[in-house]
Specification:
Structural class of chain B: mainly alpha
Order of helices and strands of chain B: HHHHHHHHHHEEHHHHHHHHHHHH
Structural class of chain A: alpha/beta
Largest interface: A-B, 50 and 45 residues
Radius of gyration of chain A: 23 Å
Oligomer: heterodimer
Number of helices of chain A: 11
Shape of chain A: elongated
Distance between the termini of chain A: 79 Å
Helix content of chain B: over 70%
Number of helices of chain B: 22
Largest sheet of chain B: 2 strands, antiparallel
Strand order of the largest sheet of chain A: 2-1-3-10-4-11
Number of strands of chain A: 11
Number of strands of chain B: 2
Strand content of chain B: under 5%
Chain lengths: 319, 505
């Protein structure tokens, strides 16, 4: 009996609250925000998403739920995000380069028009070093051409970021490129170069860190230096600035049609988070290369990336 | 070194640590035993919760999960012919026939004991190899991988015993099905029929579980009755006697246990080969080393020892490249690696120098959790084994629901459930026509690994095949594989010759 009474009281008070709810929309955000991460929990996107989610929660004062939605090289989660309600309560990472290489290099049109995503902020760039096995006679980028033979790169797969980078290097510097593909991840590809499966490779600091003794690092494909290895010259410094856009920009975006005022609120919060000293230290420790950028600059980088991929298309047809 | 070990040992005594270990172990056993869910899922589930935890406590939680999943997975493999995790598939080969004979408790006890010894052995081997991890990891490249995987594929021939043609057809079919999906190596989509679901290929877990578990449940319900009619009148005392017998069985075979431990840990150290190879390869070696090879596949407990010991010893082994190199030795270690970084720790030589206490904590955690798993497991065995005497109409629906829930939870995809059902019906038809299903599974798990290593080797050698028979390790592995394949023929030839000789005189 007691229970029924309580239930009745609960229902009545619930109805009263609903009846008294204001008709004008409350300040954004006033309910939980979902962040879709299109990869598994342990990876770089997953870690960045979780950290960002936790910090956003503190900043915005509403719960932030981080959801991993892996599959199809990050494209599955992006499709889910694309089709979510554009009300500012679902945002997520979009792995744009995966869509680009799938469309341009493999001829697979995506089921969504990924150019319609609303970019909130680019948080980090996964930038790569170019390296060779320590026993290799190659000592600089210029030596690649001087060697006068095809250079074999270890990479995860055809169309992957490091594959694009190696081909772009070959096309820019004028040397033929060969590949050993199929390494599960970049640390394994770096190990393969250290072992001598292939002569050269590309990978970030966290990927090469443990096999540094057996590698010679030639350049950093970027316009800014990596604080972990500040002595390594960037491709911009070496005069190949057209290569410096290559890499994986980790971009937070919202479904098409999300109102700009809401995007602005999240963008401001994220910008404050990445500018915070504690976040910067966390990023450095975790091997993240913080390089925040707004939508306009980010679209420009993505377009430059697509152009490089277009240029590499004939390489695939040759086979 | 000693102080780090002492510190880790002190922390194990902390009540919070005990709680974490216990929680990890419980989760690991449950996730391992549910067909479809495994260590990887369990790790992925707890990862977010350990975010704000003290790293050492989190390590205890992880180690509990990592070490207990294997035994958990062997329980349905032995009782229901349904591997809890794909690497437990080799355990079905002999575990299930033992259950049908009414020796379910004995088989489970062997598995619990074998897991315990394997885990302990793996930890010891890890400590012993720590100083020489680099040359070991560097020694194994694609050509070496290729021969290791082919060695594992030889299991098909043994699993297909009695019907070689159908077995090989099954193995080939498994390999063909595994080819579906996007191939990183050439950047093309194979047989995906433009379906986004097939872009990632046929997902391994729903396929394997559907093939083995769902099809078993169908034929189970169709035939009715109980699994172990021989044990219909068994009392609690009978089951307890069997359990003790199983423990004795394992300890009275030090050679078999030692061999499986070495193989499991060895495979674990080599990054990327995987638990599937460890258990199948160990199984083949056990058959080779046995003087009664024909009894494997029909309930020889050495088969269980081989696969479960290797499976658990692999944990210690694969921890080695993970902590010392930052290169995961297996899929669950890849998640563990993510967990390390989440806690601000960088696996690699620096971790060994600065955070050796955490490495010891993981190792101690693995061993203690295994003691918990095996100890509690052994206590539960007499009850668990009774499942084999329940009528199938009581068990099948219950297990089927668990399978479906597990399949859905894995990636929250209803298509995965559908795939498991389809694979189950296909598997049932194959079963009706006498195809050994396990060969399909072996082909499906190992085929892609062999293909990848084969093509990578050719890319390294610029298309020259001599890469497969010129390096020292490669030569040893090749000779072992060829010997394994040809030995049975030589043996039967010799038997035939002697029989003829005696017949003539």
């Amino acid at each position: 009996m007691h229970f029924v009474k309580l239930l009745a009281i609960g229902l009545v008070s619930g109805a009263l609250v609903l009846a008294n709810a204001p008709e004008t929309p409350a300040a954004y955000p006033d309910k939980p925000i979902t962040v879709i991460v299109p990869f598994g929990a342990g990876g770089a996107y997953g870690r960045l998403g979780r950290k960002m989610g936790a910090d956003l929660e503190k900043k915005l004062g509403v719960p932030v739920v981080v959801k991993n939605n892996p599959g199809a090289g990050g494209r599955k989660g992006a499709v889910v995000l694309f089709k979510s309600k554009p009300d500012g309560y679902t945002i997520g990472f979009v792995h744009f380069v995966s869509f680009q290489s799938n469309e341009i290099l493999r001829g697979k049109k995506a089921s969504i028009d990924y150019n319609k995503f609303k970019i909130i902020l680019k948080l980090t760039d996964a930038k790569q070093f170019v390296f060779v096995n320590k026993k290799s006679p190659i000592k600089s980028l210029a030596d690649f051409k001087k060697a006068g033979r095809p250079i074999k790169f270890a990479t995860t797969g055809v169309g992957a970021v490091t594959w694009v980078e190696a081909n772009a290097l070959g096309a820019t510097l004028g040397f033929p490129v060969k590949f050993v593909t199929g390494y599960k991840n970049l640390p394994k590809a770096a190990l393969a170069v250290a072992r001598g499966d292939a002569e050269a490779g590309a990978g970030g600091y966290v990927h090469v860190r443990n096999v540094l003794d057996d590698l010679r690092i030639l350049a950093f494909i970027s316009d800014k230096k990596d604080p972990n290895l500040p002595d390594i010259p960037t491709t911009t410094e070496l005069g190949y600035s057209q290569l410096s856009v290559l890499g994986v920009p980790r971009i937070m975006a919202a479904p098409p049609g999300t109102p700009d005022d809401k995007l602005q609120v999240i963008r401001k919060a994220m910008q404050e988070i990445v500018d915070d000293a504690a976040f910067k230290e966390w990023a450095l420790k975790g091997g993240f290369f913080l390089n925040p950028d707004g939508p306009d600059a980010t679209w420009k980088v993505l377009q430059a990336n697509a152009k490089i991929m277009e240029g590499l298309k004939p390489l695939l047809k040759k086979k | 070194m000693q102080t780090a070990l002492a510190e880790a040992a002190l922390r194990v005594a902390d009540p919070a640590a005990v709680l974490m270990l216990f929680m990890g172990t419980t989760l690991g056993v449950i996730f391992g035993a549910l067909p479809g869910l495994g260590t990887i899922t369990a790790l992925a589930v707890v990862l977010p919760f350990t975010f704000g935890m003290d790293p050492m406590l989190a390590m205890f939680m992880y180690s509990g999960i990592i070490s207990s999943g294997t035994f958990g997975g062997s329980v349905p493999a032995i009782l229901l012919n349904t591997p809890g995790t794909p690497p437990n598939a080799a355990t079905c080969l002999d575990g299930y026939p033992m259950t049908r004979r009414g020796e379910g408790a004995r088989a489970l006890a062997v598995s619990a004991t074998a897991c315990f010894v394997g885990s302990l052995g793996g930890a010891v081997i890890l400590l012993a190899l720590l100083p020489v991890v680099k040359p070991v990891v560097y020694a194994f490249g694609p050509p070496e991988f290729f021969w290791l995987v082919v060695f594992g594929l030889v299991t098909i021939a043994f699993a297909a015993k009695g019907n070689m043609v159908k077995g090989l057809v099954g193995g080939g079919l498994g390999i063909l099905l595994s080819l579906i999906g996007y191939t990183e190596m050439y950047g093309v989509y194979r047989y995906t029929l433009d379906s986004e679901y097939l872009w990632d290929g046929i997902p391994m877990v729903p396929f394997v579980v559907g093939m083995l578990a769902v099809s078993e449940l169908i034929s189970y319900s169709a035939s009715g009755g109980v699994t172990a009619s021989a044990a219909a009148g068994a009392t609690g005392a009978d089951w307890r006697r069997q359990t003790l017998q199983g423990i004795r069985d394992t300890f009275s075979r030090p050679l078999a246990v030692g061999r499986a431990t070495a193989i499991g840990a060895g495979i674990g150290v080599i990054p990327g080969v995987g638990a599937g190879v460890a258990s199948f390869l160990s199984y083949v070696v056990a058959i080779q080393g046995s003087d009664k090879p024909e009894t494997f596949g029909s309930g020889n407990l050495e088969g269980i020892i081989a696969s479960e010991t290797a499976n658990d010893a692999k944990d210690g082994g694969s921890l080695l490249p993970t902590v010392a190199f930052g290169i995961p030795g297996s899929a669950d270690m890849a998640l563990l690696l993510g967990a390390f970084v989440l806690h601000g720790l960088q696996p690699g030589p620096l971790l060994l120098r600065d955070h050796m206490d955490l490495v010891y904590a993981l190792l101690l955690g693995i061993v203690i959790s295994q003691i918990l798993t095996s100890g509690l497991g052994l206590m539960a065995v007499p009850w668990l084994a009774r499942l084999s005497t329940l009528p199938s109409r009581a068990i099948a629906p219950f297990v089927l629901v668990l399978v479906f829930v597990g399949m859905y939870m894995l990636r929250t995809s209803i298509f995965d459930v559908g795939l498991a059902v389809a694979a189950g019906m296909f598997g049932y038809c194959m079963r009706r026509y006498g195809f050994p299903l396990i060969t399909v599974v072996i082909g499906f798990i190992l085929g892609p690994l062999a293909e990848q290593a084969f093509l990578q080797s050719l890319m390294i050698s610029d298309g020259r095949y001599d890469i497969f028979y010129t390096q020292p390790i490669v030569i040893v592995l090749m000779i072992l594989t060829l010997a394994t394949v040809t030995l049975p023929f030589v043996k039967s030839l010799r038997r035939w010759v002697t029989e003829k000789g005696t017949g003539g005189s």
